[in-house]
């Protein structure tokens, strides 16, 4: 079973879309990754179910 999932996300600062890889084996997560375009910090919120399936992914600005 592949526990890596590729998703497209949109930067909450500049609005540009880019692809990122989510490691579903790590369970629910929150981490910061810089935008590949504007280099501002994006908070990634990852929700994984008990089977290791990605349920939800949302991004937010660091100051929200």
The share of residues in extended strands comes to over 45%
| Tally of DSSP β-strands | 5
The side-by-side strand order for the widest beta sheet comes to 3-4-5
Indicate how many domains the architecture comprises. Answer: 1
SSE string, helix = H, strand = E? EEEEE
Silhouette: elongated
What's the rounded overall pLDDT mean? 93
Helix segment count? 0
Helix coverage percent of residues? under 10%
Describe the SSE topology.
Layout: E1 4-10, E2 17-23, E3 29-34, E4 41-48, E5 54-61
Antiparallel strand pairs: 1-2, 3-4, 4-5
Protein architecture, described:
This protein is an all-beta fold. The chain has one domain (4-61). The protein is 0% helix and 56% strand. It contains no helices and five strands. It has strands at 4-10, 17-23, 29-34, 41-48, 54-61. β3 and β4 (41-48) form a beta hairpin. The chain is elongated and about 35 Å long.
List keywords for this structure.
0% helix, two-stranded antiparallel sheet, elongated, 3-stranded antiparallel sheet, mainly beta, 64 residues
What's the quick description here?
This protein has strands at 4-10, 17-23, 29-34, 41-48, 54-61. With 64 residues, the protein is mainly β.
